[in-house]
Amino acid sequence: MAGAGTIVRLEDAHLSYPSPEGEVPVLRGIELSVARGESVAVTGPSGSGKSSLIALVGGLERPTRGRVTVLDTELGAAPEHVRTRLRRRAIGVVFQAYHLVPAMTALENVALPLVLAGEADPTARARDLLEAVGLGHRMTHRPGALSGGEQQRVAIARAFVADPDLILADEPTGNLDQRTGGAIAERMFALAGETGAALVLVTHDPGLARRCDRTIRIDEGRILAEDGVEDDDRSAAPAAGEGASTHARLQARAS
Amino acid sequence: MLAFRLARPELSANLAGLALFVVSIAVGTALLTAVWVTGSVLLGAFERNGRAILGGDVEISVRGEPLVAETVAALEDLATVSRVVDLRSTVRAGDRSAPVELRAVDGAYPLYGEVGIEGPPLDDALGERDGAFGAVVAPALLARLGLEPGATARLGATEIAMAGLLRAEPDRLGSGAFMVGPRVLISGDALAAAELLAPGALAEFRYRLRRGEGVAPEAFRERLAALEPPRGWELRAPDDAAERIRRVVTRTTTFLGITGVVALAIALSAAWIAAGVWVRKRARTIALYRLSGAEPGIVAAQHAVILAIAAGAAVAAGALAGTGLALALAAPVGAFLPVSTAPGIVLPPVATAVATVLVGIAGAAIPTLAAAADIPPGAAMRTGETAPRARPWAMVAGGALFAGAVVAAVLRLPSLDLAARAAVWLVGATVVLALASAATSRAVAALRPRNFVLSAAVRGLTERRATTAKALAIGIGIAGITAVASVRASLDDALQAELPQRLPALVMIDVQPDQRDRIAALTAEVGATDFRAVPNLRANIVEVNGRPAREAVVDPSERWVVEGDRSLSWTGEATDQPLEAGDWWPAGYDGPPLLSIEEDVAEAFAVGPGDRMAYTVLGRRIEAEIVNVRVEEHRSFGPDFLLIGSPAPLAQAPHTWVATVEGPDAAIDALVGRLGEATPNVTAIDVRMLVAQVRTAIEGAGLATLAVAAVLLGVGALVVAAVVAADTDARSRESLVFSLVGASRREIVAARLAETAAIGLVAAIVGGAAGLIGGWWLADEALHIDWQPGIMAPILPLVLGILAALVAGATAGRGAVPRGRGELARRLST
Fold it and tell me: What are phi and psi for residue A176, nearest 5 degrees?
């Protein structure tokens, strides 16, 4: 799957965290490629390593073994400032917990990546994106004055503001009710479509996963299955089947 | 009690979060207690020991010659009389000599209090044995003469034996601060045998009286007044004796008291902030309690119990430490002053300090508890920032209690006038600080720098409320420290720079007229210079323009010029002292008596050239015409005379001269040695040694004020720590976001530093300005010294402010940037 169109490639990627009881393996030999403009859903039970996968691809953690290449940069070898630059320029991140700066207005939060990049007029582009997520009337509000859905829309606007090639989203609708979550996901997919950004989406929501080009399932740090590879038939993946198959595999391993 | 049951597990598990709160309160309480107990011990000693300090119910003193026998007999009818003669003299042993403060006492001495002696009791010690009179001497004399206890030394025409070491004199403070040498106590017989009381000798005869039991106070006073001889006498009551020292103590306790107020204010601010931080960190836990069905009241009560227990322990520890410190400080004072550390003296200030701090803590607790009670159960579900905020009423109530505690501390200052001014200064400084930081934040808000680091600094300053709080927290500490530092520099300057310049190296007293030429010749021989000798007499002013002097006083503040005898000299030619009015008599003038007066005398009677004044010298009355008024030269230890007459007829009166010389150390040492052989009756006072002693005292005082400043700095650091702690949580979240969107670690830390440095700069400038103004006020109004802040006072606040801010910034910045594998991922999911 490697090729000119590939912007994320994980080869035998391992990640473990130190703990008082020794190293705790979180990801064990992940193989994954994401093409330019592609959307990939990552599903799996809690603690399976989904968020760690995002941290790895976002350059927030270095693999303990294997290679993680994002936009031709091998992140395991890249020094801190290279990874920082990459994040600033090419990667947008959205989290379940919004992660907005409480002291900044919605507009300032969105403009932040551009300010960091030293952009001449960071607010113009930030304004456009806030309009695009439907928050044109809330620009001067601080996060404390915004609802959860609004905060997440600010976070999405921020993720897209620097025109990134890759969006990493970790349960972006996890804190929201279904209707709000759905509307927000809609915006995100629309923005990704418009900008041509690839999307790696960690989610528990089968409906959301179905909207992606393909779905990978992780458990205990390994990819268990990959559905809908290069497949137009996204709706074919059965919602109930995913949970059942994970469950079945877990049982199979236990026996 | 439900609140207690809920509080117990929290207490055992979570007191660490309150460490800053506890330390702030403990330090504040300790300082306030120490200051107040010290003040109470000192002032209490004066109030209860006025008689011991004076030496009697009343002390009558005359100079030159004793009271006539009939007067003394009349006094003895009225009261028990203790006779004391004070004079300066020299004790010699081998080739060494030392000037001493000689005091001859009778069997009735001391009427009040007790003499602390290492050796036999006073009466035994002063007796004659083997031809030598016993003496009780200050240990310094033995050191200076190289003698062992029991050894003998020469005093005038007799031998004295070092029979006991003087450890404590009850009337030490009453006899003046300026002593030319160690104290030597001898008997009246020894004084007579020493033959030191030549005519014109500068002896002071004191008669201490203990009123007879059958004599009513009113009658006692009237009958005493009737006994006053024409030459006048100086009569002092216990209050008079304590007055001068009381001023010093008032000054000291004021200085300490203001320090206490500042420390209290800073410590309470730290406690307030720390309590707020604690509740904010507990917000989620509190929400969980609320989820489990706890009403807001129960939450408030639970936290009240925890805060009360922590505060109680802190206050108790602080009060104990402060009391201990004050008692340790009181111990060395015992040599000068019969201090008492009885519970009745010590406990009231401790109780007041504890109560004051508790009121302040209640002020800090109310908004904290209100904020805790207001945390909704839903907060447990919410991710992201939870910042419980107290409602306005709680802030107002808390602020009122806080202010009440500070005002109570201000009211404890020795003088209400000072207290009012200090309060105005404190409030003014706070308001100015708050306004200035608010104004700065408003002004800065208009800036929109493109740079990430600069924009972080701007943003830090534009959160108006937080900026004001931080600038205040750091600024109050800086103001206090700057004020103390500038006062310290002024004190140093006043004492150190002004003293030595105007001082001769050696002062010789009791110089007989025929010894002048001899000493002048010796001076030239050893290589010393600037020999000057002036006649030294004592006079009583008795009449001004034909009116009795006491009735002629128009300026009550200068009344002292008619009370007792005053310094008088004569001169044949003009002196170099500047004149305020009139002219000198021509050189060689030999006509009717003319008089030059110092400005105090002119002010006392509103007289000047052309007016007439009569005075008595050694019982003889002289009437003279005033021809000029001299400007008083302050802080001069050289001979300084209130009255200077023309030569006739004073030159014929029996009197001694005072001589001064200057020159290199070796020459002065040689001169002192030669004087011992050539003119044994002359007492040479080595001013260099006195200056060295004064320097040591100044350095001690400097160390003490430095210690005070250091403590303030420490308390200020607590506030900074509290401010940092308040920020760390929010900041680490923010930094996480920064690093997510592509800020490097260096950029994040730089942004944090820029932000706090900006706040530190505001705090430094405003706090420093407030401190300088406060220091000027302290120096000028409270201590009455020239304000010489020196170079340190303006630099100190800048350095401290920026340092405090940088430490705060570095700590917050460092703690905020995620480090280590897994840390980032862990934080992301919360």
Answer: -115, 155
Task: Render the burial of B322-348: b for 16+ CB within 10 Å, e for the rest.
Answer: bbebbbeebeeeeebbbbbbeeebbee
Q: Distance of CA A85 to CAs A73, A170, B678, B744, B745, Å?
A: 11, 21, 93, 8, 12
What is the pTM assigned to this prediction?
Answer: 0.64
CA distance B479 to chain A (A): 29
Q: Which of B548, B553, B608 is nearest to B581 (CA)?
A: B608
Determine which helix (DSSP H) or strand (DSSP E) holds A17, and give its type and residue range: strand A6-17
Which secondary structure element, helix H or strand E, spans residue B659, and what is its range?
Answer: strand B656-662
> Is the peptide bond between B649 and the residue preceding it cis, with omega within 30 degrees of 0?
yes
Interface test with A, best of B441, B459, B819, B828 (most A CBs within 10 A): B828
Q: For residue B137, count CB atoms less than 10 angstroms from its CB and return exposed for 0-12, middle for 13-18, buried for 19 or more.
A: buried
User: What does the pLDDT look like over B591-634, one tens digit per residue?
Assistant: 899 999 998 899 999 999 999 999 988 778 899 999 999 987 65
In order of B122, B124, B355, the CA distances from B117 in angstroms are 7, 11, 42
What is chain B's alpha carbon radius of gyration, rounded to the nearest angstrom?
A: 34
Chain A residue whose CA is closest to B385: A102
Enter the DSSP assignment of B493: I
Kindly state whether A61 is in contact with chain B, defined as any CB-CB distance less than 8 angstroms. yes
Q: Kindly tell me the burial class for residue B652, based on how many C-beta atoms sit within 10 Å of its own C-beta (0-12, 13-18, 19 or more).
A: exposed
Task: Indicate whether A41 pLDDT > 80.
Answer: yes
Q: Do A112 and B740 touch (CB under 8 A)?
A: no
DSSP for B4-34? HHHHHHHHHHHGGGGHHHHHHHHHHHHHHHH
> What is the mean predicted confidence (pLDDT) over A82-105?
83
Residue pair B725/B812 in contact by the 8 Å Cβ criterion: no
Specify the 3-state DSSP secondary structure of B209: strand
Please report the residues numbered 183 through 242 in chain A whose beta carbons come closer than 8 angstroms to any beta carbon of chain B: none
Cα-Cα end-to-end distance for chain A: 34
Work out the minimum CA distance from A219 to partner chain B, whole angstroms: 17
**C-alpha of A228 from chain center:** 19
Q: CA–CA separation, A225 vs B49, rounded Å?
A: 96
Sequence-separated (6 or more) residues with CB below 8 Å from residue B258: B413, B422, B483, B778, B782
Mean pLDDT of A16-27: 84
Taking the CB of residue B445, how many other CB atoms lie within 10 A of it? 14
Q: For residue B558, which of B520, B602, B588, B525 has the smallest C-alpha distance?
A: B602
pLDDT reading at B177 higher than 60 = no
Residue B228 confidence (pLDDT): 84
Neighbours of A247 (CB within 10 A): 12
Would you tell me which residues 676-735 of chain B have a C-beta closer than 8 angstroms to some C-beta of chain A?
Answer: 730, 733-734
Residues of B in contact with A81 (CB under 8 A): 744
Out of A97, A117, A122, the one facing B830 most closely (by C-beta) is A97
Smallest Cα distance from A27 to chain B, Å? 12
**pLDDT higher than 60, residue A248:** no
Element (H, E) at B510: strand B506-511
CA–centroid distance for B69 within its chain: 44
B760 CA: distance to closest CA in chain A (Å): 20
